[in-house]
TrEMBL record, chains A, B:
The organism of origin for this protein: Hymenobacter caeli
PANTHER family linked to this entry: FE(2+)/MN(2+) TRANSPORTER PCL1
Record key words, sorted: Membrane, Transmembrane, Transmembrane helix
Keyword match Transport: no
Pfam family, one: VIT1
Topology in the lipid bilayer: Multi-pass membrane protein
Official protein name in the record: VIT1/CCC1 family predicted Fe2+/Mn2+ transporter
Primary location recorded for the protein, binned into one broad class: membrane
UniProt keyword annotation of Ion transport present: no
Spans traversing the lipid bilayer: 20-41, 47-70, 154-172, 178-196, 208-227
Amino acid sequence: MPPFLHREYHLSSSAVLQDIVIGLSDGLTVPFALAAGLSGAVQSSGLVITAGLAEIVAGSIAMGLGGYLAGRTEVDHYAAELAREHAEVRTVPDTERREVQELLANMGLSPATAAQATHELTQDPEQWVKFMMKYELDLEEPDPKQAPKSAGTIAAAYAVGGLIPLSAYFFTATPQQGLLWSGAITLLCLLVFGFFKSRLTGQPPVPGALKMAATGAAAAGAAYYVAHLVNGVRL
Amino acid sequence: MPPFLHREYHLSSSAVLQDIVIGLSDGLTVPFALAAGLSGAVQSSGLVITAGLAEIVAGSIAMGLGGYLAGRTEVDHYAAELAREHAEVRTVPDTERREVQELLANMGLSPATAAQATHELTQDPEQWVKFMMKYELDLEEPDPKQAPKSAGTIAAAYAVGGLIPLSAYFFTATPQQGLLWSGAITLLCLLVFGFFKSRLTGQPPVPGALKMAATGAAAAGAAYYVAHLVNGVRL
């Protein structure tokens, strides 16, 4: 595989993984913590399940649709900036040429080499604009198909992540029993997920696993405490 | 203000705004949708408030801690890559020099100018590594203070966003009345927030406002439907 193809492949594969990681991180944490919180306040597993499923649906749609709209915005933003750069290269070429020269000087080129390089880079307007987009504005052309794919992946990962902690309440008689099983299953999943997530991003995996489990435990503990407190006041 | 300071200022101001936007987007949507969903399934406003507060706490901690850990990981990742580049420049300078030359040729420089530029850029190892970090790896040095600041901003914005839809249930007698007021207040807030968010990012504000409100309405509608369905089966 030629190097640039290899790089493209690598980038697109990690885009999907990144979306799965985003969805799972929140899906394993927030519905787990909500269900744990309610377990400290209500007597019916049915209520915990109802609230948990409502949260999973709400979270999946908010994250999925949010991801989709953010992706679409990125595509629009790139198109707008591209049109602006094309116009600037046409209408104020001297200003734009000076920007290229400054950019090259900031990289560390001598004035003479920067001038020669500027001369070469600004011969072809297409190449000139491409250079400005990438090195002045730090924008890569987004793939328009990425947004719907991202949305679906994030939403599905959130739902899968959320159903794991909730499943415990299906098979237990009381919310308290559900919480014990849910906590055990979810902390185990968070440890495994944190381990592989850290491996993927080249971080030390054991501290990564512990951090992920600690985040879930902190969220669940705080939600339990608050629900218990509110319950004592209101119900 | 010198141009680079102006740019730094601009970047750091938009980092805070970005965090507020991230927190508010989810905070206005998910707790709203969860409360709406439960309104279709339970008879007690106290239960909706308990679940809503548990969700806000869980979501704030998950997002805030998640943001903090992601920021810390970014700092570690940058340090690891920096060390690796320094080592490579020392141990395989010819390979690294060829990478600089290829990068410059890909920008559109002639072989002669690319060779001269490579010669200049690789004189000082510090400047050489800086060039590789920015232009080969596309990494900017992250500010280590950014992670805790981000975490706090996102968590606070999520909590503020979540308390707006929930507040309606404090002042109404039944979940059904709460839902009406909550829906009205939240959709208005989503329209206003979507409008200004789009203005900030240079997108058309009216479609942006409508998209934001539609996301919230879709999440709430789906959560209501699912909670109603589950409720019919279980309770």
